[in-house]
TrEMBL record:
Signal peptide (residue range): none
Function: Catalyzes two sequential steps in the biosynthesis of coenzyme A. In the first step cysteine is conjugated to 4'-phosphopantothenate to form 4-phosphopantothenoylcysteine. In the second step the latter compound is decarboxylated to form 4'-phosphopantotheine.
Protein name in UniProt: Coenzyme A biosynthesis bifunctional protein CoaBC
Cofactor(s) the protein needs: FMN; Mg(2+)
Keywords: Decarboxylase, Flavoprotein, FMN, Ligase, Lyase, Magnesium, Metal-binding, Multifunctional enzyme
Pfam families linked to this entry: DFP, Flavoprotein
Details of cofactor binding: Binds 1 FMN per subunit.
Gene: coaBC
Protein residues bound to CTP: D280, K290, F325, K339, K343
Enzyme Commission number(s) from the entry: 4.1.1.36, 6.3.2.5
Keyword set includes Membrane: no
Active site (record annotation): C160 (proton donor)
């Protein structure tokens, strides 16, 4: 069992008070062995069946259960909902399934569940009469209808002493089910992307430079969304506010360095996404060392245009899908459509930088997405992760045509 799709993933595990929770220990052990980073939420009653100390020792991850704990200034259900690449609830009792369906948030697991945006896999396990109860059946169907993944319970000898449906599948079966589902749903598997993000620095001397307020958050959110959907992604990153260690991200400083790295890596990609805020101008001549403030010759700074990376790459690669970003202060649509035409873009994402509450350095944004087919999507103010999801959805539609 290779479980390639799960290796290195951040996984949140929910454990409820089903007798099958002893199997979750083996599940945690397997996930730890393949390099997953684990956090576990246990319900109060599940801790009557297995010890949190055992769970923590086997998983190597922290165990959470207290709704009112607030360590390091973090509210647990808020920090935990943002942690996972995916969540596994195993075993899932009839009680927790009912809470999920009804949006009841009266403990840490049910409260965290309501905020999770990444995939959730639920493994029901209970007595046969309970799993076949019409209310439980209806709850399970409602969860499925809302995009949650529910694994069919196994049949066999149950703790109540009868043979029937309701057993929690073996850990290896659960992980194979999840692995198969992830691979099946990675819609960008086999697609190659090159992405730029962050700012650039155009040096006046060895100390001072021209730059802008790009934090890199929007581009990095798109990078992660593409990877989440199975794409192979390489990024060229200018200076940004993020501390990223990733072998698939190449760091540069100037617009010329960014252009050279893009040219070097563009050959085999299906789509190029230019999200970096590249400086339009650079000093004609960089001064070596540091210009002293008592110099008489600094009344003017002579600038020249930088290379238009997106325009040049688009001209040289007409067979590839080109996606650009535009930061506009006014005449938004006019400028966006003009840029699309001049640079032969398939899609352009417009940022209104006149609004200081969104965009640069903010965790939120609001964009308008233009495509060649005159389709326009204007988002609400959303987190940049949510914007990334919408942007990648639009790219997927173009790739399918």
């Amino acid at each position: 069992m290779r479980l390639e799709s799960l290796k290195g993933k951040r996984i949140l595990i929910g454990i409820t008070a089903g007798i099958a929770c002893y199997k979750t220990i083996s599940l945690l052990s397997i996930l730890r062995k393949i390099g997953c980073e684990l956090k576990i939420i246990m319900t109060e009653n599940s801790m009557r069946l297995i010890s949190p100390i055992t769970v923590q020792a086997v998983s190597g991850g922290k165990v959470y259960h207290d709704m009112w704990s607030c360590e390091r200034g973090e509210i647990e259900h808020i920090s935990l909902k943002d942690f996972p690449d995916l969540t596994i609830i195993a075993p899932a009792s009839a009680n927790i399934i009912g809470k999920f369906t009804s949006a009841i948030a009266d403990d840490l697991l049910s409260t965290t569940f309501l905020g999770i945006k990444t995939p959730v896999y639920i493994v029901p396990s209970m007595n046969t009469d309970m799993i076949e109860n019409p209310f439980v059946i209806k709850n399970i169907e409602r969860l499925k209808e809302n995009g949650y993944k529910l694994m069919e319970p196994a049949e066999g000898f149950l703790a109540c002493g009868v043979n029937g449906k309701g057993r929690m599948p073996e850990p290896e079966e659960i992980l194979k089910y999840i692995d198969d589902d992830i691979i099946k749903n990675q819609e960008l598997s086999g697609k190659n992307f090159l992405l730029t993000f962050g700012a650039t620095r155009e040096y006046i001397d060895d100390i001072r430079f021209i730059t802008n307020n790009s934090s890199g958050k929007m581009g990095y959110s798109i990078y992660n969304e593409l990877k989440r959907r199975g794409a192979k992604v390489k990024a060229i990153a200018g200076p940004n506010d993020l501390r990223i260690e990733d072998e698939n991200i190449i760091n540069v400083l100037t617009s010329e360095e960014m252009y050279k790295k893009v040219e070097k890596n563009i050959k085999d990609v299906d789509c190029f996404i230019s999200c970096a805020a590249v400086s339009d101008y650079t000093p004609e001549k960089k001064v070596k060392g540091k210009i002293k403030k008592d110099k008489d010759d600094i009344n003017s700074l002579k600038l020249k245009r930088t290379k238009d990376i997106l325009k040049k790459v688009s001209q040289d690669n007409p067979d590839k899908i080109m996606v650009g970003f535009a930061a506009e202060w006014q005449d938004h649509e006019k400028n966006a459509l003009s840029k699309m035409k001049k640079k032969s873009l398939d899609m352009l994402v417009l940022n209104d930088v006149s609004n200081k509450n969104i965009g640069f350095r903010s965790d939120n944004n609001q964009v308008t997405i233009y495509s060649k087919k005159n389709q326009t999507i204007k988002t609400e103010i959303l987190t940049k992760k949510e914007i990334a999801h919408i942007v990648v959805n639009s790219i997927v539609k173009i790739l399918k045509k």
